[in-house]
Amino acid sequence: MNSIQRLTKGMKRSRHRNIRVLHVGPGYGQKGGIATVLNDLRSKADNLQSLGIKTAIFPTRSFKSATNILKFVSTDILRFIHAAWHADIVHLHVASRGSLVRKGVIFATAKVMRRRCIFHVHSGDFFEYYEGAGAVYRAAAKCMVRHSDARVVVSSAHRDDMLKTFGTTSLPTVIGNCAVEAERACLSCAQPIDDGRYVLFAARLAESKGLEELFRAVRELRLRGLCVPLKVAGSGDTARWRGLAETLGIEDQVEFIGWIVGESKIAAFARASIFCMPSYFESFGISTLEAMWAGRPVIGTVVGGFSDLVQEGETGYLVPPRNIPLLAERIGELWSNAARANGMGKAGKRAAQKKFGSAVIIDKYATLYRTVCH
């Protein structure tokens, strides 16, 4: 029995009136930040249930093939109507581009059904993409934002972006992500392992994640006589990035370990000395939170969700995007001062528990749903 069926049957049997929430987001094996958030919410369904919130997840498919588009039009909309029939709230988890198009169709359907809707932005480039998009796309996004019953963003920076871009009358709710798997694993480990001595990067292998700048910073440190090993975790055009490492002469320092999950991910973070992701934009940065749970100092950029996660000089460092000299300096500083790096890592773990523990985040979701329904 899937989550939608459990929602339907559970609500019919329940004596007490729960708030029934249908989450809409990527499924069918898709990877990425929203998929991780939905998996975390799925794992905490019982916790939400104890707070009077009954949840289910409606998976959407990507539009990367004509077959998927046909299935979305011919079957998924009907499946959504059936699922939403038993929901009080439709919670739309939105990125940019095709994600907004899919959610736009579902949003319109939900509104016709008179369901309350929550518009939840996850993508780091959502607002930047909106500014350069066509008139139809912009009109659809504006309609969804303004006619939703609540708007949610994952960071304070995105709250400001939403207010500036759409001028919403009500203040968007900020709900950061949690990292359930990392939290569970790292709370059971009293001390960081730190036997690997490498810098870890974990994200999509994309230019926007600052991977080229990271490679060039590693090269700059090498020219100064400091050889820093780098492990690159993530999926993408590995051949391109391997070629860049060879061009820069750092191929012997860079190891590509692919997309990591489960125990492999936990081990990669636990054995690293530093986590570094110098993104051009970042809505939240769940890998950053995973590093904090592992007790690792973080080097990120002064964009998006990093400012909510990283306390400058206390749990890590934030540098301007594309600033290779400063990036190299910060990596070199922490690499050469293990005591300072470990102190930052411990402070980061405490911050993760206080601000982004799963109990804290789940309570924020429950408060949001009660507010929307009452």
UniProtKB/TrEMBL annotation:
<keyword id="KW-0808">Transferase</keyword>
<dbReference type="Pfam" id="PF00534">
    <property type="entry name" value="Glycos_transf_1"/>
</dbReference>
<dbReference type="Pfam" id="PF13579">
    <property type="entry name" value="Glyco_trans_4_4"/>
</dbReference>
<feature type="domain" description="Glycosyltransferase subfamily 4-like N-terminal">
    <location>
        <begin position="4"/>
        <end position="167"/>
    </location>
</feature>
<protein>
    <submittedName>
        <fullName>Glycosyltransferase involved in cell wall bisynthesis</fullName>
    </submittedName>
</protein>
<dbReference type="GO" id="GO:0016757">
    <property type="term" value="F:glycosyltransferase activity"/>
</dbReference>
<dbReference type="InterPro" id="IPR028098">
    <property type="entry name" value="Glyco_trans_4-like_N"/>
</dbReference>
<feature type="domain" description="Glycosyl transferase family 1">
    <location>
        <begin position="194"/>
        <end position="350"/>
    </location>
</feature>
<dbReference type="InterPro" id="IPR001296">
    <property type="entry name" value="Glyco_trans_1"/>
</dbReference>
